[in-house]
Amino acid sequence: MASATAPTTLSLLPTTKSSSTSSATPSSSRVHLSSFLGGRPLRRLGFAAADPLLAVQVASKVRSVSGRGVRGVVSMAKKSVGDLSAAELKGKKVFVRADLNVPLDDNQNITDDTRIRAAVPTIKYLIQNGAKVILSSHLGRPKGVTPKYSLAPLVPRLSELIGIEVVKADDSIGPEVEKLVASLPEGGVLLLENVRFYKEEEKNDPEHAKKLAALADLYVNDAFGTAHRAHASTEGVTKYLKPSVAGFLLQKELDYLVGAVSTPKRPFAAIVGGSKVSSKIGVIESLLEKVDKLILGGGMIFTFYKAQGLSVGSSLVEEDKLELATTLLAKAKAKGVSLLLPSDVVIADKFAPDANSQIVPASAIPDGWMGLDIGPDSIKTFNEALDTTQTIIWNGPMGVFEFDKFATGTEAIAKKLAELSGKGVTTIIGGGDSVAAVEKVGVADVMSHISTGGGASLELLEGKELPGVLALDEATPVAV
């Protein structure tokens, strides 16, 4: 691998990092999910019909499961729903924990159905193999039974996407639910009411988990967005249901965020943005162990600037993280990571969409002004650095992209990643505001993978183990 490009920015780390060439190449296997979706690909999630369900850069051999998907064997490899045969599923009651926590407007209309569509491949696979699907999810943060957080508004869209009429229960446990389960035909789907209507759910109460598990024969967790929580429906039920396996979405998240990041095709770059260093400490420290290039943007950069003795005006600074910023800069230098900070910024006289603005060098922010975006020189430098990469992960915006006037940097990164995706670069959008950014720019479809989990994505990138994942059955290793 060629040496990483030396930074030309304020980080003053003219270092290079040598590495071996790609440790793996993508599998040529393809999973045509159009058969699951009636020809309609899953927007935003990398589930295009031409895209492999788990096209990841993994060191281990990828095997095909005829008619059942693809498994990438990674460090957190778990048994997948695709590993279960028709014989193992036909007539079986399957408890599926999905993440159907979609946004609703004041009239209870779904404003973004991404998470519902993300659950479709797993549900389709189960019903096509004769299983009886008991679908579970949370919605919002209810305090007890809260009508506005009922899953009832989801039924029409869910039924439309799956292609069958979904039956809705008024509870998630109890005699009435048991009757509905008993009457469920093979290939049928029963949607339980919001599991968080019970406080025992988030407390992972064993007795409550046992009641949920009593409804089914086996368990599938496809709720990556809640996999970092040990709740009754994500971790507790696995103690009573075997097998307990990952759904296609959860499997795909693991293989990208663990497999592709742990054994990337190099050079490997990470772009980390957001307002505060404190919220990304774990991610930055973890990525410094793995990347060749680290690009920083967003409000956190001003803490790094001040740590280097620069004036930052009234920009956001975490005073208690100045020493940390200095430590991270030193760690990057010691590890030979090319760490790039913006060389110029867009500053404003107030935090507002109609603020007066100007572009200044990062070393010349005047008093009373605050930085709200990266400047054009920084965009050019960042793009040039990304041109030589083969794997990129992005978490966090470059500026206050909610304000159009200060969205240029974030949108430029989104467009650059889309361009590189078209050239075969693996591009991973690690959840959070970065997802909103690529969606806003209209380039979500071309990214290699877009994570559906915010907190779960961050914890996985930090190297943390997720309780909802640990509880699942291990995959059978494939001989390499």
UniProtKB/TrEMBL annotation:
Amino acids binding ATP: 280, 402, 431-434
Binding site for (2R)-3-phosphoglycerate: 115, 196, 229
Top-level taxon: Eukaryota
InterPro entries the record matches: Phosphoglycerate_kinase, Phosphoglycerate_kinase_CS, Phosphoglycerate_kinase_N, Phosphoglycerate_kinase_sf
Record has Cytoplasm as a keyword: no
Metabolic or biological pathway: Carbohydrate biosynthesis; Calvin cycle
EC number: 2.7.2.3
Biased composition (Low complexity): 1-29
Region (Disordered) location: 1-31
Residues annotated to bind substrate: 99-101, 138-141
Keywords noted in UniProt: ATP-binding, Calvin cycle, Chloroplast, Kinase, Magnesium, Metal-binding, Nucleotide-binding, Plastid, Transferase, Transit peptide
Cofactor(s) needed for function: Mg(2+)
Catalytic activity: (2R)-3-phosphoglycerate + ATP = (2R)-3-phospho-glyceroyl phosphate + ADP
Compartments reported by the entry: Plastid, Chloroplast
First-level EC class: transferase
GO molecular-function terms, A-Z: ADP binding; ATP binding; metal ion binding; phosphoglycerate kinase activity; protein kinase activity
Record carries keyword Kinase: yes
CC per GO annotation: chloroplast; cytosol; membrane
Pfam families, per the entry: PGK
Family, similarity comment: Belongs to the phosphoglycerate kinase family.
Quaternary assembly: Monomer.
HAMAP family referenced in this protein's UniProt entry, alphabetically: Phosphoglyc_kinase
Name the UniProt record assigns to this protein: Phosphoglycerate kinase
Organism: Vicia faba (Broad bean)
